[in-house]
Amino acid sequence: MLEQRIEHTCFTPDTIQLMTDISLPLTFDPDSLDPEAAALLPRLASADAAVRRIALLALADLEDEAVLGPIVTALRSDVSSEVRAQAAEVLGAWERADAVAALCEALADRAEDVREAAAQSLSNLKDPESGPLLAPWTAHGDPFVRQAALRGLRELRYAGALEPALAALAANEYIVRLEAVSVLGWLKNEHALGPLTAAAAQDPSAAVRRAAIGALGIGAAATDDIIAALLSALGDAAWQVREEAAATLGKLRAPGARDALIAALDDDYWQVRLQAVRALGKLGDANASAISTASTAVAALLTHAISNLRKEAALSLGELGDAASLPALQVAATDPDPEVRKAARIALAQIDKAN
């Protein structure tokens, strides 16, 4: 009914004049729009917020950059938070400076739905050229704005985000520190390794410690300081941090972590055990004694109640390549779970080929 009412509305010259009245903060020239877009403009002056919101969707459907002006104006000036939120949502489809600037401003909107919509649109940015527009907002007084700006910078890999992200590691709010860690992880900058290592060991938030540990595994070299921090994290009070530490040690293929990872196979949480099992299979230590010790510990998990852990144990044994684990794998090849049986067969084939 609403769409029909819009389609059959007759716009008078006075109504159309509303769209070009100098009292409105227009940032576009209505005369520059094509006829289809221009025909939609009067709807943005409707007294009905629903009509204005649908008009924004119709403008966005045109996929014409010339309509960005009216949409930006709606985001900045419309009295309805629903309309402003819709404008923030549709602007996410264009990564242009004017759109990004308007979305940044909307992060501080008085309405939560507008702020959330703007933050979501900014999180989808991919062009590093948007970085300079976002970076100043990381110093805003509102923690939500700082968090959203950092989240927008995350995947841009904008070099200029390094200093703002490092500064944000000292924020009082953990949600800001969390996003700062993510930005630093994506940047893969050697100057961030020290602060990330410190955050992994010392941040009061388990979520931040976990994120920092994960960031250390993204393209970082396995330095002594990093390995020491990860080994220490295997004893963290939060099991999610221990889980991430085990996974990251596997990514870095740190042979010196073997004993600590074997010990982690007895962790109270099976999720930590699973990552420790995977990591042990990735270390690739040629020391026969070390491999035998690891294989024996991993083989013991082939009878664990969690089938996913049994599967990972079988796959890890295949990577370790210890012929002494063949009898245990042959039993696992008859496991009730088909995924475990499949993993056991793969491991048996790997060991047979290696030997």
Average pLDDT figure = 88
Query: From the helix content, strand content and strand pairing, which structural class follows?
Result: mainly alpha
Please report the distance between the alpha carbons of the first and last residues. 74 Å
Regions with little confidence, pLDDT below 50 for 5+ residues: 1-27
Number of DSSP-assigned strands? 0
What is the string of SSEs from the N terminus onward? HHHHHHHHHHHHHHHHHHHHHH
Strand content: under 5%
Shape: elongated
Helix proportion range: 55-70%
- The rounded Rg comes to 28 Å
The major beta sheet can be summarized as: none
Q: Please count the helical segments.
A: 22
Characterization of the model:
This protein has 355 residues and is mostly helical. Among the domains are: 1-124, no CATH class; 286-355, Leucine-rich Repeat Variant (Alpha Horseshoe), CATH 1.25.10. It has helices spanning 2-7, 13-18, 35-40, 49-61, 68-77, 81-91, 97-106, 112-123, 131-134, 143-153, 162-168, 174-187, 193-202, 206-216, 224-233, 239-252, 258-264, 270-282, 288-299, 307-320, 326-332, 338-354. Helix 7 (97-106) runs antiparallel to helix 8, helix 12 packs parallel to helix 14 and helix 14 packs parallel to helix 16 (239-252). It is elongated. Mean pLDDT is 88; it is low at 1-27. InterPro entries: ARM-like (IPR011989), ARM-type_fold (IPR016024), HEAT_type_2 (IPR021133), PBS_lyase_HEAT (IPR004155). This is PBS lyase. Pfam families: HEAT_2.
